[in-house]
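Input record (one chain):
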Amino acid sequence: MATGREIAQLCGVSVATVSRVFNQPETVGAETRERVLRVAKELDYRPNEAARALSTKQSTMIGLVWDTDHRRPGWRHPYLQDLLIGLKSALSAHGYHLLMLATSGDAREVGASLADPVGYVNMTRRHHLGGLVLIDSGSDAEAFGTFAQSGVPCVALDVAVEGPRATYVTSDNAGGARDAVAHLVALGHERIAMITGPQDNQPSQARVSGYRMGLRDAGIPQRAEYVESGDFYRASGTAAAQRLLALDEPPTAIFAASDEMAVGALLAARAAGLKVPDDLALIGFDDIEIASVVEPALTTVSQDKPGFGVAAAKAIMAMITGAGPEAPLVLPTRLVVRESCGGA
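The corresponding structure, as predicted from the sequence alone:
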């Protein structure tokens, strides 16, 4: 690959002129600009992003803070994979690049970890990143608060943060859960149980709140034994459903805070000799691919996963280009009715 100096020599201009062609093209005459761009294209020249950031005071590189340590399962969830596609596509369409920042429980391996958020902030400034997108892998909310207060443009996904240049994007988790319960009530269910996500996870907390609101709306008493904890993954859904179905008065319907757990509950029902939806109704949350291919197909609360990523991309780009942080954005959800709870 050619260097800026080689391009300058071939075009008979200074290195500074080559730099201005890519960073401040309006300051270079049309004929010179076209000659430099033509030679750069022929030689596959790409300007150094760090140098461009220094000269333009505006970086096109966005850091992604996401703990992908193999001991933390969050990064494997299908919901996050779909969200990332929307995020990366939206950034790429506007000339931005997404750089995953290495993370580990052992800060010695990478020089920074979520246990050391200040190290991340320093890394961001040292490499002239334009901003940070923050994805929670299970217990990162406290560290994200430090990022948000740093003054670096930050957009958190599903974690409420506040700061001078920080905002967040989330879904209407409470409203979606409330709709799920309302649907089960409309089908005649009163013994409605819930399998929650992790207790320290903000979307999980909101879905529990929505579940309780749905019961209150219907005048159905809340029963502590009808709420079991999970971790958003299938095995925990199976274990939680087994406990619920073993009750002296088991539920006739289960709302799970993720599709993965709802599928786990479906497996538990089958193992217990129950038919879904005849003996037990099920509703999940997320609308990941497996929801439509299991039998019976899963009724679920659908999140706009690609739209989630696009919204995060727009928010971070707005802050990088000089706008203040946008108000937190809550995306709507919708109930997708399939066969797992009847009434489809």
